[in-house]
Amino acid sequence: MMYSMQGRSDRVYKNDEEIVLSRQEYKLLVYLLENKNHVLSKEQILNHIWDNEGKFVDHNTVSVNISRLQTKVENNASDPKYIKTIHGIGYIWKEE
Length: 96
Known about the structure:
Arc Repressor Mutant, subunit A, 3 helices, globular
């Protein structure tokens, strides 16, 4: 696997280099990894990541944060290997 979360639980490494994630991006990455190879709907992601904090957000928030996360963790965000969009359904962390 090309990603590791070593030492402190809020540090993420890609190819042995630390990548800086916002708090929400980190929570989203952890949620995707905890559910790898399972499709998560935008609603599930919203409820798990944002509703706990009582913030008003919409489905676009999920899309924007997924896109930002892809830019940081994928080698090619326009052709993602790990964070895949399942159109009309949600997102999946795909790991073979």
